[in-house]
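Backbone geometry tokens:
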Amino acid sequence: MRKALIILLSFSFLSTALAGTRGAYTRPGPMMKIPFSRVSRSPNLFTAGFGTEIHNFSYLNMTKGVYFYSELGNNFLAGFSSVQGADTTDLETIGTVPFTAPVEFGFHMQYKIYSYGDISITTGIQDIIFQNAGDDSGLQLDPEQLSVFGVISSDKEIGSYRMSTYMGFGSGGLATIDTVASDTVSGTRTGVFAGFLLNTPYFAKWGGLDLVGEFDGTGINVGLRIPLTSDYRLSLGFTHIEKLPDWESAYWAGHPGLTIGLEMSVPRAGEKMISATGPAMVGDQIILPGTDPYESLSGQVDSTLAMADAAVMTLRDSMSLVQNEMRNLMVRLSAMEQRSLHLEDSLKSMKLSSNVIERNMNEAMRHLSRSLRYFYAGDYRTALQEVELALELNPNLALAYARRGSIYYKLGDVQRATINWNLALRMDPEYEDVRNILKALHENRLKSTSIIDE
């Protein structure tokens, strides 16, 4: 109901204004003259504004208009514009002969039929023009400007910029027209249009500054949309810049112009959802479904019943407090149980690790025992393999490094023997046998019989 009232009031206001449907920034959307499409729904409830297209300054000749549009659903958009065109008299008589441009009232509708990723396709009708020529004929439909169109859009993120491109085709006012006199064109006209809108990070807190460029089927238009606040934008630009050298000529369809516009957007209000199936809280009061939260008790209620009701409410509050305390205790108990389980799991993990270490140590010692037997038998290569297996199970065994040093010494590799004896001494600084061997080796008095073989 509120949306319908806003739209009705806006239509009532706009119907009294003067503007021109061929003017820039007087159709739905951010572009100057061409239709647009977008993947996501507009964040605004509706958008309204005005646009002016100045064609001459020596004699102020311009098109001016106002517009309004709103997305009535996820895919449907409707808009309205009211315009008054420029003075179309001859160059010799312009400004000297009284001329009142006809007032036009236009309706615009479009529907998004497809969207996927950053691509969307929209079809629609714009410039359903009713013209008031200022005589007693009243409003007359102008079918030549009626435009049926289709437009494909693409939105791309380029760093902190966002590029929207539009391509499409249309009839009527979107078709190629005669740039000298539009009344010389007959039959159904169709044409193509294209454009882009580059949203920049400048004034990002208000939505960003927009650069607009388009080919509207007649000529090239460029513009700038400057955010004044998050809800207001100032629109500037030039239409048909390729014809700027003919600026001083009288007006014709497709005349170049300087455009100025102002746009206002009203954002959608967030809707507050209230449950219809359960109680809700307003302050410290409990509001039940289907009741009026502002309903007061009648002054005729019996005082005894009122006291009983107060007592019941007190007991209810006390029960709520007890329930909350019980809930808190249950939460704490659950947390303690979780912590106990965690500690139990940690203890099991530690026991498992201890068992694994003990098992590895036992296995390593068995390999060292076998290596000693092979060492005594003179099978030094096999003895060395057993030592390597012991070190894989426990790399911190000083005895294993000492044994490997003795084996390398027997094999004639004194350098490796010395390295391993030093590793054994580093693992166990109190290993006196290894210390004595290294001292004897240093003093050149090491004999094979003193090699560690325990």
In short: The longest strand covers residues 103-116. The two ends are 100 Å apart (CA to CA). The CA atoms of residues 207 and 230 lie 6 Å apart. The chain has two domains: 2-91+98-179+189-267, 365-450.
